[in-house]
Amino acid sequence: MMTVDILTGVPELLDGAVNSSILRNALLSGICDIWVHDLRHYTTDRHGKIDDSPYGGGPGMILNAQPVFSCLDHLMSLRGDIPKRIYLTPQGVKLEQKHVQVLSESKWLILLCGHYKEVDFRVFERDQWEEISLGDYVLSGGELPAAVLADAIVRLLPGSLGDDQSAKTDSFSDGLLDAPYYTKPEEIESLRVPEVLLSGHHKHIAEWRQEQKKLRTKARRPDLWEQYRIFSRIKTKE
Q: Where residue 166 falls among pLDDT bands split at 50, 70, 90?
């Protein structure tokens, strides 16, 4: 079973995400444990303060190292193991599905959410952290990225989805975007479901979806399409 510990100064931002949908089902099914830790419970400041102004001056506040160290040390002592530590930051490596698949094989993850200008750099000098970004933009804190990362990882764990094959056909799972899908009714406002999907011929349906995936990726993400073509040529040579 995977364990995910999330360190934050604003735990209420994670309540809805952790206790809803796929994550909630995974928790109730015993597929994973997700714990949200309020860093204010680990600070030595009598007022519960976990940030301060930066040395050298400048705008913004910096998350203190002390509550992070205290929380991390407590968890490592409690679990008796070494976690994979992840810091959610726009300065990190951009998250991709292949990275999520690797992380889904981890036994224990600790996600650190910054919520100020930055985190005291001594946090990263003392321990090794992997830095991950959702993209080239800035949010108010790492809580929403942590929720996104947790959701992306947990849905890949066996049993999290009603059908384990569902995750294997998602966008990016094979380097392509996913195909279009349809459901009832067969016709609405003169728009019909493609006949091949009504044929019951599984081979033809699979071929149609694969072709649609290629067309969609080529049109919407030429960068992914080029990577897919290169990878396909390499596999063919092998």
A: low
CA distances from 31 to 78, 104, 219, 233 (A): 20, 12, 38, 38
Full-model pTM: 0.84
Containing domain of residue 216, as a range?
A: 169-237
Say if residue 238's pLDDT is above 60: no
The predicted pLDDT at position 174 comes to 83
223 Cβ neighbours under 8 A, 6+ residues apart: none
Q: Is 51 exposed, middle or buried (0-12, 13-18, 19+ CB in 10 A)?
A: buried
- Is 67 within 8 Å of 43 (Cβ atoms)? yes
Give the DSSP H/E element, type plus range, for residue 94.
strand 84-94
Determine the longest span between alpha carbons in the chain, in angstroms: 69
Q: What is the pLDDT of residue 234?
A: 66
Residue whose pair of structure tokens reads 């993209």 in the numeric block: 135
CATH number at residue 28: 3.40.1280.10
Total domains, the chain: 2
Is it the case that residue 10 has pLDDT exceeding 70?
Answer: yes
- Stretch 144-171: mean pLDDT: 81
Q: CB-based contacts of 134: which residues, under 8 Å, 6+ apart?
A: 88, 94, 95, 145, 148, 149
